[in-house]
Amino acid sequence: MARNDDGKRNFALREASGTESSVFSGRTPRQAALKAARRLDPADSEDAAQRTELRLREKGTKKVHHYEGWAWVEEAPDDKPDWMPGRITKANVSKQGIEHLEEI
Q1: Do the beta carbons of residue 44 and residue 72 sit within 8 Å?
Q2: Would you say 69 and 43 are in contact if contact means Cβ atoms under 8 Å apart?
Q3: How high is the pLDDT of residue 23?
């Protein structure tokens, strides 16, 4: 398992066809999955958000972490920095399991 000097690992977003389109880094698979979920088309509220399957393969391994992810927009907090927009994208994920690939 390959780690950066800062302890972060790389996870490739895996499509149903087996192609890997994007790479997200994080100390944990969940952290990388949250980054991937924030790129989904956000709904107007968390309750209205459509859940999408996210499959992240840890680079250097044959482990694929399965998550259900969803994103929504909401008002930024009152104490937000000046550079932050008024509405921000939030995301959440739910772990569904781990798959072990035969080959990559």
Answers
A1: yes
A2: no
A3: 96
Rounded Cα gap, residues 93 and 91, in angstroms = 7
Question: What DSSP letter does each residue of the chain carry, written as one string?
Answer: --B-TTS-EEEEEE-TTS-EEEEEEESSHHHHHHHHHTTS--BSSTTTPPPEEEEEEETTSSEEEEEEEEEEEEEPPTT--TTS-SEEEEEEEEEEEEEE-S--
Q: What is the pLDDT of residues 3-50, one digit of tens each?
A: 667 889 999 999 988 899 899 999 999 999 999 999 999 999 999 999
| pLDDT score for 86 | 95
* The 87-100 sheet, strands edge to edge: 20-26, 9-14, 52-58, 63-75, 87-100
Nearest in space to 99 (alpha carbons), one of 4, 9, 39, 14: 14
pLDDT at residue 4, rounded to an integer: 63
What Rg do the C-alpha atoms of the chain give, in angstroms?
15
